[in-house]
Structure formats: C-alpha cells, structure tokens
Amino acid sequence: MAAEVAFWILAVVSVGAALAVVLIRDIFRAALFLVLCFFTVAGIYVTLQADFLAAVQVLVYIGAVAVLLIFAVMLTREAQHGSPSNRLRIPVLLFALVLLGIMIYTMVGNDWTVPIGALSNTSLETLGESGSGLAASLAEMLFSEDGFVLPLEIAGIMLLAAVIGAIVIMREK
Amino acid sequence: MSIGLEHYLVLSSILFCIGMYGALTKRNAVVILMCIEIMLNAVNIALVAFSRYLAPEVIVLTGQVFVIFVMVVAAAEAAVGLAIIMALYRSRRTVDASEIDLMKW
Do B24 and A92 touch (CB under 8 A)? Predict the structure, then answer.
C-alpha cells in the first residue's frame, strides 16, 4: 500500500516537473524543475527496488549534469530572453499526443511477462527480503568475463574521449 | 489496483512525449539539452521497470546494466553538447537554435 502511494506521488510530481521544464519561460527555474524531476525519477527507481541506480541517478544527474546545465544557463546570459517556442508548436503538440496514444495503447494492451525458462541463458538474481546483494550481483554482471566487461571498457574510453573533446571544443583559440 | 509494469510504462511514455515536445519546439539550445535529458530518464524508467517486472519473483539485471550505460552516454552527451553550445555562444553571441542555421539549406 505504501509503495502504491509513493508511486502515485512520485509519478504526479515527476510529470508535473517535466511539464514545468517545458512550459516555464524562465530558464533558470526550468533547470531547477529539472532537478526536481531527476529526484523523483530516483525515487521511482527506489520503488522498483533498484537502490544502486537511485544513488547513481542522484550522483550523476543531480550532482553533475544538472550543475553543468545550470552553469551553461548562467554563462550564456540568455536567461532574460526566456525560452520561447518556435513555429512548430502546434504540429509537434499533435504529433506528441498521437505518439503518446500509440505508445500507451501498445504498452497497456500487451502481456509483457516472460516465463523464466525463456531467460535461462541470462543470469537471474532472486529477490531477497530487502533486496540485499543487488548491487553486488550488478557489479558481478558488469565486471565478469561472460558479462559486460568489454562494453564497460568501451564506455570508459568513450567518457575519456568526451572529456577530451569537450576541452578541445571549449579551448580559446 | 496494485502497481504493475503498465503503470511504469505509461509514466515512461508520458515523460518521453513531454521531453520530445520540448526538444522539438524550444529555441534555447540549453533547454533542448534539458528536454533530451528528460527523454533519456524516461527510457531509463522503462528499462528498470522491465528488469523488475519482466519475470515475476525475480530481477533480470540486464535492464539495470543498460541503464548504467545510458547514464554514461547521457553524461558524455551533456558535456560535449554544452561545450558546443558555449563555443557557439562565444563566436555568435546567441544560443537560439533557430538562428544557428549555417548547415541548413
């Protein structure tokens, strides 16, 4: 019961914060509502028993990405112009509503559950009483030989390339 | 009615469409990046929900691993995107995406 209440509160607040990011004209306030949206998404991860991902969400998105975005808002001095819409507003609104209808129709109409036998080649982690050990098994999956260690290395190289690229682009000529 | 996979998927769809609307209509490039972050978060919610509910009584951790990779890509995208925006602002004194049309024909 508590999980349901938590889900509804978090869902309503996250949708409201996302709408505020899109609709508010003041860019700085939009960035603050984006932080609220990130926080509620972290809470939704907690209701899905993904505790480690909730911590990573707070650290990466709120600690790094949101601060970076607020830095950009401060540095570009476009805040007094607000964030107006371009002339595509009505067609894009129609397109977004149609896409939303199609997505909801598809996602609600299907039965997504899969029998466990179909997943026998992937490593499953039985859910403990408190979800304990989930981060450990996640780490084992990320770093083990038959897991995702090669994509992990590639992601590290990509982060390094992104950092170097950002420095090169930003550097004064 | 208990909370199931459909609730999370519908929430994810709503957030995705809000982010898409903002990314396609906003003029300020920083706000466009914010809306792209909302879209990536929506996809992450769908992935985590699938990892929780796809097989009952068990967590399929592949979805959470994918969320970690999506977060890595989102962080790299934010860094490079904001660097490009700052470089554009330095040379053209604007971040209005409808005025930055040098590569449009």
Answer: yes
